[in-house]
Amino acid sequence: MPPLAPRGRGDEGGDGALSSPRLRHGTPERAGLDTGQIARLVRHVRTLPNGARPWCAGAVLLAGRGPVIAAETACGWAVRYAAYDETADRGVELPAAARVPMTLDTPFDLASLTKLFTTIAAVQQIERGTLGIDARVGAYLPEFTGAARAATTVRQLLTHTSGLRPELPLYDAPDRAARLALLRAEAPSSKPGEYLYSDLNMLLLQHLLERLTGRPLDVLVREGITRPLGMTATSYGPRAGAAATEDQRRPWAKAERGMLRGEVHDENAWALGGVAGHAGLFSTAYDLAVLCRTLLGGGSYGTARILGPDFVDLMLAAPGLGFRVDEASFMGELAGAGAAGHTGFTGTSLVLDPVTDTFLVLLATTVHPRRRPADNRPRATAATRLAHAVTGPPGS
């Protein structure tokens, strides 16, 4: 492989502000990517909704390098099933005329990709000096007695090293007051400092940010991230026209809600009203590509700036703040030199690689009509195809 250009930081504008090129469609060659490998990537994604037991009902891919979108496809169905038949262990398919085809503009329930936005909102406060990364959560939220007594820090929340267990069944509590009481009392279940992925970290971070700023999380995300970047398709639900998720019923799910479309899938986010630090956002592949491009551009996109380059580096450097770094299980051969990204339970994922200046967004309906054990192999294959496509310096 030819030497790669250093990570682009954009250009200095006349006022000294950093800027970064905006996304545009182009050819693989223009992006410095191999046409054959990009074609293989697209073909791979287009097979994912096929077969008697497909990996997903439908998918959207968007990938590129530098500011160039070099691969874009939508396949399968945004809505394919009316319900899940537990006796036959298969989906009850809608009549052909009632199914909804997947499109490039289909919104998806992002699930845990929401954590990336909560992370960025927190790092923005760290950059402004209003939040200390090693400050104790109890200094901001003394009524969260479990975290306060454990001396849990902001860094531990962002790196999933607080020791808090992965989940708390807030959805079983009778009302919001009872749910918050459970969250406030929750103490670490394992030794702080050791990695244990937990939704509770981002729920605590949400409450900390809301206390610190006096504004709800959805406003922080909108005003600090999506509005300045022009991400008009990204917001908390409910969301009309979204891809369907699950026929959510017990015993495989944790609530009795039926087939979900446009309502947040995560049971705790739903129980908390739809706006949560760990889940609840809806978005499209293009909007997520804008986010990837912003981070690869050092926190700037066009003339908008949401973070400074040093704070982007702080967030993406191993072990990562909010982001997962060099995780081959879903990054394939993009992992190994500082690639960062995340996955979401509903079938969403994104990866960005600062070394090659590449990005890949793969959104899929893997829980439609019901959840299955996670299988990241198709995501890893897609990322590996993109890694193999890199032929030289990024395009312009």
Continuous helix count: 14
Cα end-to-end separation:
19 Å
The CATH architecture name of one domain reads 3-Layer(aba) Sandwich
Proportion of residues in helical segments: 25-40%
The coarse overall form would be globular
Structural class: alpha+beta
Predict the CATH topology of one domain. Answer: Beta-lactamase
Task: Characterize the largest beta sheet: strand count, sense, and whether it forms a barrel.
Answer: 8 strands, mixed
Q: What is the overall pLDDT average?
A: 94
Task: Describe it.
The chain is an alpha+beta fold and 396 residues long. The chain has a domain of 208 residues: 3-Layer(aba) Sandwich (Beta-lactamase), CATH 3.40.710. Helices cover 32% and strands 19% of the residues. The strands form six sheets. Strands 3, 4, 5, 8, 16, 17, 18 and 19 form an eight-stranded mixed β-sheet that branches. Strands 9-13-10 form a three-stranded antiparallel β-sheet. A two-stranded antiparallel sheet has the order 1-2. Strand 1 and strand 2 form a beta hairpin. It is globular. It starts with 10 loop residues before the first strand and ends in a 7-residue tail after the last helix. The N terminus is likely disordered.
